[in-house]
Amino acid sequence: MKDTSAPTGPATSHDELHAELSDSFDTTAMATETTLLNPRFYTTDFDEMDRIDVTPVRKDWDALLAQMKSDPNKGHFKKTADWDHVDWQGMEPRLRAEFIDFLVSSCTAEFSGCVLYKEMKRRGTNPDICELLSYMSRDEARHAGFINDALREAVVAVNLGFLTKAKKYTYFRPKFIYYATYLSEKIGYARYITIYRHLEAHPEHRFHPIFKWFKEWCNDEFSHGEAFALLMRTDPKLTNSFVNKLWIRFFLTAVYSTMWVRDHARPDFHAALGVDIDWYDQEVYRKTSAIARQVFPVEIDIDHPAWLPNLRRMDAAMRDMDAAKRAGGLGGRLRHALASARAALAFARLYLIPVRHTQPPVSVRLEPAY
Ligand SMILES: [Fe+2]
Ligand SMILES: [Fe+2]
Predict the structure, then answer these.
(1) pLDDT class for 70, splitting at 50, 70, 90?
(2) How far is the CA of 10 from the centre of ligand 1 (A)?
(3) Is 150 exposed, middle or buried (CB count within 10 Å of its CB: 0-12, 13-18, 19+)?
(4) Reported CATH class of domain 14-296
(5) Which among 64, 161, 268, 323 could disulfide-bond with 95, CB atoms 3.0 to 4.6 Å apart, if both were Cys?
(6) Distance from Cα 117 to the centre of ligand 2, integer Å
């Protein structure tokens, strides 16, 4: 986990504040760092992906691609008169640090999608897949660019060109790309819409204008998720075989628990939004699970009595790992090993919570419903 400790000392002018922020936040280094919790960049077996045949889902596929081609959000990611003045100077230093961390992490995640989709398109020859990927990389480039514009206002934009070259890439087999990408797109949708709806009801907590853009934004993520749902539908084994069900369960547990730990590292950010983090995360899981029934035959029981206690254990263990790493030395290494074992045990307990079995419907396409 990153050190998000806040810069100290009041800034007396805009220029001084900008100098202080750009000294304190090396956002490109923050985005490049590879840790358990940071968004990663992925690479895969592009030839295998290129062999996908969408014939079994052709009708839904054509309808989805026609919608993406029409580019409903073409003009959306531009600052308008709605973009109020941002008072970076008046922001509490801890909130500012956590908010910048949130923006950098979101920008990295969006850009990670852009890089992966662009590379898949560049290596591919399958016209259906290439067309889809061109729309998806277009959208993610806009999303990452828009967040980076918000960071640029505080003079702490991420150097995305450098990131593409410097960031380590993690290899995932295509089926793992489907599970992980589908989930991250649908979770992205659920996160954006939950914050948007919350701030719609409590506009006094909207401390930055970017949140006003989340509604149309989340529809892009929803469509991206739909595309991956269709890809998984082309081969029923991907979601129905015994082993793959175990993998889906693993990805659900990993993605949900990572989100919990990441969000709980930003208490001031969520307090400023007026959001209880436990409530917010459970709400996002609930929405994501309801949507994921369209394609996944198993779902995590987030109301199980072991769910929240083990998420909290995992969070505490990961904070201890972080502290031990910073302490260094032999003592630090020992404490790190012990905390890692506790985190692994908490993860195993989460993984072993009995899942709910569901029957995905015959038709797969959904519309955003929240
Ligand atoms: Fe996105
Ligand atoms: Fe997306």
Answers:
(1) very high
(2) 35
(3) buried
(4) mainly alpha
(5) 268
(6) 10
